[in-house]
Amino acid sequence: MLNAPPLTPEAPALRPVRTLALIALVGVLGPGAAGAGRGGPPAPSADLAGPGMTVARAFSEPSLEARFASLSPTLRAFADPPASAKGQAWLGLTPGWEILDLARLPNLELGEPDAAFQAEDARRINALRPVSREPLAKMPAFRLSGAGEDARRALTCLTQAVYYEAAREPEVGQAAVAQVVLNRLRHPGYPKSVCGVVYQGSARPTGCQFTFTCDGSLGRPPEPALWSAADAVARRALSGHVVREVGSATHYHADYVAPYWAPTLVKLAQIGAHIFYRWTGPSGEAGAFTGRYAGGEASLTPAILGGVDPRTQAGLEAFMAPPPPRTVTLALAGETRTYTISEPDAAGSAGLPAPGQLSPIRRRPTPEEIRRINAALAALEKGEPAPVVAGAGVQP
């Protein structure tokens, strides 16, 4: 019941069963039904005011006591439990459920969700999503040659990913995790080094790409036997081994979780406890994986890997956003026009074209070459013979 005003020692709370019966009776027959024919309840106290006054008047302690007194002897006997049941938790409800203090939020004592039930729910959800029937993309082998610092650092990062993400998975499941790392390396939307892929987003508030880089797992020393097995898997992956079972997968998650992004991707396979996905459309096909390994693993120090640095953090946002454009002004027949030209990105590949932009396919002309071209175009516009100047053309 709504406890307004608060109870006093002289006005003890109604017994739970009596309160339940009265509330049910009032709810069915109306606030005045219990006292019909026996006189109405006492006038509500003057301190009951505010938005909940109507409800508070109907279910206040004095009102319920008055309604209980107005019941017939049979109903009172039914609503009033025997003395032997005093203090019993009726219907399994939390003691004190019958009093709702308007000054405090109710405590339903639901507790924390059970992890086992959550895991089972996630597995049921994941099972409802069908595996794609399309053929898996045939990914080419990746080979990291050399025995320098770059190769050693790349091997360490890939071994960490295999160990901390899948150390107790079957061997093919461990190899599939390594395959995802190498698939990402070749996709335009991810860094172009092994360590860059593994540690992408590790210091961002939005979360890391590989959980172990930001959840404290690296603070736990690895088990030697499992680390040795993960090292062997990573070495095979960097020597050209391809896991055909996951194709062009760039994402995976454990089957005991149901991440929000899973329905937006194409489900490819489940190996052990991990479910693997690829991007939808052409971005998930083998033809999209055109990125080249850039190396530079040795320069990715722990400080860089643990911070927000473009060498490790440049991902989809850098891929989707074209680089800052530059402008070129050309004069033709006395009319000056300005064009926007997209620049190549830092890696030297062509920037993504944007609507209304000119994408260069040749080297940039020098200012002198531009002057000569403009002069030739102006002469042509006037009907004059174009001046012949050696080197005036723009060479490919």
What does this structure look like?
- The protein has 396 residues and is mainly α.
- Helix content is 34%, strand content 7%.
- The chain is built from 13 helices and five strands.
- The chain has helices spanning 16-29, 53-59, 61-70, 73-79, 115-128, 149-166, 171-186, 194-198, 224-238, 302-305, 310-313, 316-320, 367-382; strands spanning 251-254, 266-271, 274-278, 326-332, 335-341.
- A three-stranded antiparallel beta sheet has the order 1-3-2, with helices on one face. The chain has a two-stranded antiparallel ribbon with strand order 4-5.
- Mean pLDDT is 73; it is low at 1-14, 31-49, 314-323, 343-361 and 391-396.
* Fraction of residues in β-strands: 5-15%
User: Roughly what percent helix?
Assistant: 25-40%
Q: What is the oligomeric state here?
A: single chain
Largest sheet, in brief, is: 3 strands, antiparallel
Number of strands: 5
As residue ranges, the low-confidence spans are 1-14, 31-49, 314-323, 343-361, 391-396
What class would the helix/strand composition place it in? mainly alpha
Silhouette? extended
The SSE string, one letter per element, is HHHHHHHHHEEEHHHEEH
Measure the end-to-end span. 86 Å
Instruction: Please report the number of helical segments.
Output: 13
Calculate Rg over CA atoms: 37 Å
